[in-house]
Amino acid sequence: MAKIWVYGDPAQDSTGFKTALEILTKARSLGGEVEAVVFGPGATEAAKAFGEHGATKVFAGDDAAFHDTIGTVAATALHQLVQEHQPNIILFPMSYDARDVASRLSAKTGSTLMSNATDVTGAEGAKTAIFGGAQIVDVKFDGPDPKLVLIRPKSFDAEASGGSAEVVNVTAPAAEGAKVVERHEQAATGPKLEDASVIVSGGRGLQDPSNFKLLEDLAALIPGAAVGATRAVVDAGWVPYAMQIGQTGKTVKPKVYIAVGISGATQHIVGMKSSDRIIAINKDAEAPIFQLADLGIVGDALKVVPKLTEEVKARKG
Amino acid sequence: MNVLVLVKQIPDPNNPYQLANNRLKRDGGQNVLDPGDEFGVEAALQLTEANGGEVTVISMGPESAMEAIRRALSMGAHKGVLISDESLQGADALVTARVLAAAIKKTGFDLVIAGVESTDGSTGTVPGTIAELLGVPLASFAKHLEIKDTTLHIQRQTEKGYDDVESPLPAVLTVTAGVNEPRYPTFKGIMQAKSKPVEQLKVGDLGLSADEAKPTQTVNEVTPAPARGAGEKFEDDGTGAAKVADFLKEAKVI
Fold it and tell me: Which of A93, A221, A295, A313 has its CA 20 to 30 A from that of B180?
């Protein structure tokens, strides 16, 4: 019987926490022994949620050192646990911190590491989506255990099973490396992108950073709506990184996604293709985004969006 | 200081990707230096311009990856290393990291710079695995960087903002797009690049065993994803906005 481990982040509002609960739900369905490893301040507290989602045991390390070093302390501790308990596979959320832990562990154990998985087929394989989700690649793992897999957020729905986990405390080993000396958080306004029921998202087609105001005006009229952006405009410095949706940004799954002036590069599509419904507004009739859209409007976003804001106002009465 | 930059040649991301034998087709089409790597090259050039030293670009790939190295050399890098070996076709992240780490050790370094992930593979794990194999810190997702004395200071991108991170050298550093504005090669740079030295290596030159270079992942199959139902597409004749509003009403979000 396979021993499956799920690695998670204790910060409840982080991708690494939510995604770990999603992965646990999937891990339960694979059969076998499901256990979790949670490192960072609040780990013991978080163990409750991990137990409720199917972990029978949680290795919890509350020491701040797990969180304040870039990968080194967590990877060293995880390696010690691996040697002692010999899991067959470890499933990680595809988050900043977990990526740096998994990549180090791969070198320590000499075991395979797969990124961007969208499904797990057992202890020896996983699937990933490529070309913006158009093709599914079924991958088989070779080499020594534990196989290491980084899984994209929102690949599964999290469902509690009502269990509880035995908590095993883990102390932080000493490890050299890069260290966090100070944290800076940007104040967020409005609903978070990951939780928004509607997302109005802008790309290069908006032509100028000031035109994001048009999207904000529209979003302000729709309950639970947030504004997102493509990597191209974030790289160009139009809007902050926190708004980026896609491979290197957030993965979202709103009821309605409105893509404005977005061509539909693979990098963007992987972050939004699971939205319930997709609307695209773009000048270029050949833009790949239209292949995903339930409703496509071929037209000038700068004309359509202000009009849409008026139309929405009218319908709200 | 001795700065090494990891670069990759990829199929032009502006063209649709294709598969050949269940792998990304790397020949036949237009290939380019991964745009994400240009930020790494630029960061290395700025560091050596300020502190002295040399920039070496390292790439693993087919013989044609020489073009990506030449591109980096034309931006101003001093020399290159290309590891090209048929046995490395289909190399996964772990194998790629082993090969690059061996080449890095052989070359010697104070700092290794890479993009956060390649544009075609997007695994983002090769730099971390290299750091572990070299036994040095990883300073990842830098959107700003600075070296004071022998300490690397970065602003590390996070979900909610950024962290100030410090790392001793030597180290591996990954840079995000936007960390700088990569320069364009000048005509002089392009001409000079042709005569800059590029060392060509095989797996055997790196002291790796055949087992260490053997892929740890194989593709069972590639299948088309279930297609989304084809939607409706309208040319905006002035009623486009009304159609979208009706759609939102029907979806019960307004």
Answer: A93
